[in-house]
Write a structure and sequence with these properties.
Blueprint lengths: L4 E5 L3 H13 L3 E5 L2 H10 L4 E5 L7 H10 L8 E6 L3 H10 L3 E5 L3 H16 L9 E3 L2 E4 L4 E4 L2 E3 L3 H11 L6 E2 H8 L8 H15 L6 E4 L3 E4 L4
Parallel strand pairs: 1-2, 1-3, 3-4, 4-5
Antiparallel strand pairs: 6-7, 7-8, 8-9, 10-12, 11-12
Helix pairs in contact: 2-3, 3-4, 6-8, 7-8
Length: about 230
């Protein structure tokens, strides 16, 4: 099987070397770039499977790189993991809403970064769930055809919006959803859902799921995700 090819973009050489070394040990083919412009050129010329992208780059920053890649149909599906300093929550939200797949804060654990990358690459290989596909994760079962949920074998009565929120997240375990991403995904033409009401829906959903409510994790300052399966 061909090695997955990953591009690492960071203007700090020590971080580049750290990530390159650890991902190479994991069996990936690793390319590197020190600027946003160089990253764009490599994405254009190479067939990549994923990009690890620092937000704080000179001149063209990581958000601009993400914006350019996501608006181009040829590169829009390239998975992006953002590397970010802890104080950049607003930038994380902006990056995720542009289409980045996940983020890791600096200073970071190479093992955590590798785990996030593996999770994203697994999701890329999974077939998109059909409208009738029953999804099982941990001890939860979600049936979109019947619009039913079971937790530990017991039926759970959810509202329309609670079901939509759960179904959105359980399809992509480990994927970080901002509040506005959840709003865009679950609202109907005449159904009022706001950023603020997302938190209310999550509280209600967790309560109804009981012990399974802890599977919905809060990502501080950003949004929510369903616990990643092993």
């Amino acid at each position: 099987m061909a090695k997955k090819k990953i591009l690492v973009v960071d203007d700090e050489e020590d971080i580049l070397e750290l990530v390159r070394y650890n991902l190479s040990r994991e069996g990936y083919d690793v390319l590197s770039a020190g600027t946003g412009e160089e990253a764009i050129q490599l994405v254009t010329n190479e067939k990549l499977d994923l990009m690890v992208l620092d937000l704080m780059l000179p001149e063209m920053d990581g958000l601009e790189v993400t914006r350019m890649l996501k608006k181009d149909p040829q590169t829009a599906l390239l998975p992006i993991v953002m590397l970010t300093a802890k104080g950049e929550e607003a930038d994380v939200v902006a990056g995720l809403e542009m289409g980045a797949d996940d983020y890791v804060t600096k200073p970071f654990s190479p093992r955590i970064l590798s785990a996030r990358i593996r999770a994203i690459l697994r999701r890329q290989e999974m077939p998109a769930p059909g409208a009738k596909t029953v999804i099982r994760a941990f001890d939860l079962e979600v049936d979109p055809g019947k619009r039913s949920v079971k937790a530990g074998g017991n039926a759970v009565d959810l509202t329309y919006t609670e079901f939509q929120v759960l179904y959105l997240m359980i399809r992509r375990p480990g994927w970080v959803f901002t509040r506005s991403m959840i709003v865009d995904a679950v609202r109907g033409n005449d159904y009022p859902v706001t950023d603020r009401s997302v938190d209310v829906q999550i509280v209600g959903l967790r309560k109804k799921l009981g012990d399974h409510g802890k599977l919905i994790e809060t990502v501080r300052g950003v949004g929510y995700r369903f616990k990643e399966t092993e």
